[in-house]
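Appendix B. Extra example for self-study. Work through it before the problem class; the solution is given directly after the inputs so you can check yourself.
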Amino acid sequence: MKALHRFDFMGLRRTFGVLSIVLVVVSLGLLVGRGLNLGLDFTGGALIEITSPQDIAIEDARSALQGSPYQDAVIQHFGSARDVVVRVAPKEEIGNDKAGLELFALLEKSMPELELRRVEFVGPQVGDELRDQSGLALLMALGTMLVYIWFRFSNKFGISAVVALFHDVIVVLGFFALFQWQVDLTVLAALLALIGYSINDSIVIADYVRDTFRTSRLDDPLEIVNSAIRLTLGRTINTSLTTLLVVLALLIFGGEAVHSFAQALSIGIVVGTYSSIYIVCNLALSMKLNKEDFIVNIVEEVDEAP
Amino acid sequence: MSQYPRWKLLLLIAVLGICGLYAMPNLYPDVPAIQVSSTEAGGEVSLYAREKMHKALTDAGIGHGDGEQVGTSWLVRMAGNDEQLRGKLIAEEALGRDYVVALNLAQTTPSWLRKIGASPMNLGLDLRGGVHFLIQVDSEAAVRQRMQAWAGEVRLMLRDEGVRYRSVEHEGRDLIVQFHDQQGLDAMDSKIRARLREFNGRRLEDTPGLRLSLSEQGVRDIQNYAVDQNRTSLANRVNELGVGEPVVQRQGVDRIVVQLPGIQDASQARRILGRTATLEFRLVADEYSGMSPSIAPVGTEIFPFKTDGRPVVLRRQSIVTGDQVTNANMGFDEQGVPEVNITLDAGGARRMQRITADNVGKPMGVLFIESKSEMQSYVDAEGERRERMLNTSEAYVINVATIRDTLGSRFRITGLDSAAEASELALLLRAGGLAAPITIVEERTIGPSLGADNIAAGLKSMVIGMAFVLIFMALWYKAFGLIANIALVGNLVIIVGVLSLIPGATLTLPGIAGIVLTIGMAVDANVLIFEQIKQLLKDGQPPLQAIEGGYKRAFSTILDANITTMIAAVILFAAGSGSVQGFAVTLFIGILTSMFTAIVGTRALVGVIYGRASRVPSRLSI
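Solution. Structure tokens for the complete assembly:
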């Protein structure tokens, strides 16, 4: 810890700047190349979750669906060998809403004691709408943050913080593309929470940088930023750690419904913490951040001394 | 540091006390219950019926409570899930068809808490199990139907006025009236326009005629009417299904959300919701009896008879239709054959009376019409995925009977296969038809066991996540960490209290995730404050000034940082749906309450511990 308090964070700014660019480029490449594994919420289709007192063999389930319109369904275990999720994509000939119950009826025939735990059906049109709406919500959140930061801080910090947000969202989605984790509505929730969280980190550092610019005798912007990062380091690490701890608890114990959510947030918190230091400060410095940037927005302070 | 202001301390205690009080009902788990309500709208459960049911339950040896009045229905607590299911069947048997028996959950909140309006949090479908449907109303079909009616109205007008016309057609949202000659047009132009105020009319260019375009407002009115009317019908049907606390709400322009908590059999719900069956009573065109014409003679239509499929020729004009039915009940005749007893409204009764009086001794047919609609998706020329609604309807004659006497407002029909079919037809006639075809475009069914598992998983991750944070804070910030921990627990109490207090708030699994997340993020404010205090101590300030300064300096940072998360929560609430909105709500409330406990709460505790002059510490445990 002590060594970190003397650490020259901005000394590594070029290295990490390059790393960030590489991360974003690779993520974008993955997003374009592999694409996202969009869940039912966004593609439409049907899903059932079944459970049985005995283990369910995937092959048995597959053979039960053989010859039916659902034979190309995706069948997966989750949690344990007794729990199975079956998904079918929307199809022209089975574009109707009865797919879930029909699937269950087929499976039940060959497997006794099956319990139907969950049925979901999303029409293709609703799926498209949810997808568009979610994309719009993400952009709106990013835009609103930009406006908020713009009023509160200097333009240079505002732009840097929003660039960092784009970085965070893109890298998290890059992970989802890389591992082909399922993206559903809860991932949108996680991304929006991440946007709030990550900007929060940036604001704290920006606040300290602003204070240091005002109070410190230091002249060199690089040194000022360095000292602000050092001052906030304890807080940055501790807050990220507590948040990460609860998100990990969700990831491990929260069950399948919040799994994607917890995956997105746990990566997001790490990436967001990193970006608040190495993207926000880095970029602001590259834009020649200086004392004047903070003068316009200084909050009036009453001098108490007579 | 001066002593902490007393009013702030009192405020804190008051908030914590009130929220704690209103959070308490959540400690009392709901118990299974059966809920009895009258099939008559607004009707209460009679004392006689209650006693009959309670006696039947006692006789069957099923453990049950005394029951209580909830709104217009009667709620009886049951000893367990098994008793609930058996009790429902027994209650149904005892009460007969005048009452609907539904499975529900009953609160066990002590009465003194209920007196102050405290009740547990509403649980979302993902936690308590149930069905969620999103239903699309084909409002275009409603517009089409209305256009047809208008065309008929214009034809009638022209006939009444004795004006010769070539055709009255509708093309999309335009009505085109073509006259034989210019005089006809001149005579009728202003009259038609005066009658059809919803339209903008202009004359056709090459032939004597009018093109009337339905205004945007007119289209909207029809669509609104169709969606609202469908919502009402669906709500009626849902009530007939016997569901505790159902939700039937309009969403957006042409969709309806239906949520049925605790429903076990989604397929039954789906069938009842989606069916659009109605009856029409028509005279049999008996001049053609014995013949079986392949093409319907003018003014008649041919329908198959239900049992054997033989063609029946009916008059095109109906006597009364299902819309004019005010009540319908299933019953049995003397031979035990199922029948439906029907009551007509005044207009229907008058028509029925007039026509049957003129036709005594002639046969009348009961036509059963069922329309189904299905979404079919296809790919259009540009490769875009689109959907269209396929409407099919099936009509058959279920009964032909000779009119023996003049019929009035009450009569009965037979010819139904089974008691179940009779009761379903009665239900559909009672609940009303749908003004426009509907399809289910989204369904989410959560089984009750999954709901219980979700609650368990959510609670487990909350407890473990919170334990992690409490341990970390105590180890890292020592005494101040413990203070932050007390605030954190207080925060949880306040979140639960606030969620229980807001009537519309619903707890979902993502909502629990939101609470867990805010627990992790809530300590951020304290971390910021404590780091500032540490810094000030390091700069050589005395402990009390360091505390004062730490809180003061951190405040604007905390505010800035939390406002952004609240903005994100608001956007998520606006864009998300269902359970994700639950996350937005808990995140928003959690951030708000955590700022309160982390700033005001810990400050008060610090004030109480270090505030008195006699206890000024020489060093802080931080």
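Self-check: The CA atoms of residues 207 and 306 of chain B lie 48 Å apart. If your reasoning did not lead you there, revisit section 3.
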